[in-house]
Amino acid sequence: MLEVDGLAKRYGEVLALRDLSVRVDEGECLVLLGRNGAGKTTALRCMAGVLLPSAGNVKVDGIDAADDPAAVRALVGLMPEVPGLYERMSARSYLDHFGAIYDLEPSLRTRRIGELLELFELADAGDRWLGTYSKGMRQKVALIRATLHRPRLVLADEPTSALDPDSARRAWNYLKDLQKDGCALVICTHSMEEAENLAGDIGIMSAGRALAVGSIVELRRRSGLKTHQEVRELPSLQDIYLAIVGNGAAEHELAETRSA
Amino acid sequence: MVALTLAIPLASGSGVRALAAFGGGTAVVNRLALVGAFFVVFIPASFSLVLALESFVGERERTTLEVLLSTPLREAEIYAGKVAAVLAVSLTLCYGGLLVYCLVTFPGLGYFPLAILLALALSTICQVAAMVAGAVIISLNARTMRAANVMASFIILPMSIALQAEAALILIGRAEYLWAFALLMLVVAVVFLRMGFNGFSREALLARDVGLRNPWRRAVNAVRGSFEGRPGLLRLVWMRRTPMLIAAAGFPIGAVAGYLAGATNVIPANVVRPVLTSLVRTTNASGAIDEALLIFSHNVLAFVLVAALAILTAGLSGFLLTFAPGFILGFAAALTSWTFALSGIVPNGFVEIPAAIIAGGLAIQIGAAAIHMDPSGGWTARVLAAFADYVRALRWLVPALAVASVLEVLLG
Fold it and tell me: Where would a tag sit more exposed on chain B, N or C end, judged by fewer CB atoms within 10 A?
């Protein structure tokens, strides 16, 4: 579904992303981990056809994002880190507006909007202005907006960062349901719990490049960490992440990237 | 906005009617009725600037832009949607206000200047379109709303001049002048819309604010870089042959236009004769050196002004550099004869006219660079390069003007 090969993105003098190669098939989920400024958001924007790669290529369902970015955007649902809602619209009219942009039939979008607002416990607040919503409610609306048109690929940047544990679990279940329907997911997160919950593959990014990509088992082997002897417990993803990124390594690589 | 749109026409219309009722002279009431119409249209038109300025940069500040740009909408659709949304609101308010004003003012007044009101309505569309298109370009390029407001002076100042001109045309009371004004505004609007369409870039809108430190150093580097690797004069003339040809055509076109204007008395001779007289005898300078210096300084000043104005006039100043002398020559020929008129520009014209063609062509190139936008950016670099070419060409053109002034004094 998603093929990224040698992707690089430069903003002026800064190389924000370099030589990223990943592949996500239908119904699979790739979770990108990394510090702030590691290039995760830039990677998502390139995968969404919003930014064009400086080098390499991105293909969604066989369509090259550089050749036909509009077609790629039609297949993708992007949920940015900031919900970015129109505050003087109600949730229903806002979602209806975006449903119309994605050419959903009026009756279909009304039905889906109703179902999803119900699922995320927003049905009662659906006619209120979005400006009156809490942070978590806004994030739920943003997730609904990104998935309303049943995209083939969902790209979500910290999709549950503002949600309470119960709502986060509900959101994860919803994303897993999408996966079961064949939707591919790419999630950026700082939450190891979220990563462990959703990930098929995990990409660990630092200073604009992927340090490691693979399943949690492969990453565990690569990190060289052994089973915790005292408790006979496997090392957590947090342990693996810190072992691969390493303290201070990111700063060093950031400086290297800038000089490049 | 809606309240103002209704309140101002009501107040203006009531004022005109009150003046008519209390014995104001017909001519005064009629003129005031026209000025009132202009006034009620202008106020809502000015709202369009505020709306257009925040179209992109406002979304950016509210963090809603990325979501909009991630939709399948194409660049042209987003841009056209933004412009159309602002235009729809502004024009609805303009025409709503005009309608209210007409309903309040004209019934029973015995005066209804339909032709002027129609021309005003059309020129309003074109004027608002020009303002909106220009403001949307600013909104596309500004990083913050505050920066957009500062940059809006590039729209407000020229538009205030245009509005004063429009007000004068309304007071003159000739509808055809307003049609011409509307046409001019339409051209400006089309140029701005084209710039906006061509310059729209998701990349630029979402690009990180990187590399924005040390603005002075960057500015100096950009200016220095614009002078590097530029072609020599002959190669430059060949590279810029199209604008050179346009500038060259300005002289004969001006001569023909001037001759027709003089022969048909479209411009009364008593208006142009003082100009011609002052050109024939440019100075009261006592010596030949003083006279040559004065001619030289006038010509250099003209060349500098043409370059400075090229960016604001989209290169029209470059065309005028050859058109204006041609026009004066043709006009003089119509009043006297071609032989007499040509004798005034020989032999110095053999040097001055090619120099003016080169300077005019390069000024047209500056204007062309200024109105060309590209999604990949580089507007500043292109304009600076065009200016750099002009400045480099002055190394040859200024000595040529010096030679021409000496020839004019000694042999002219």
Answer: N
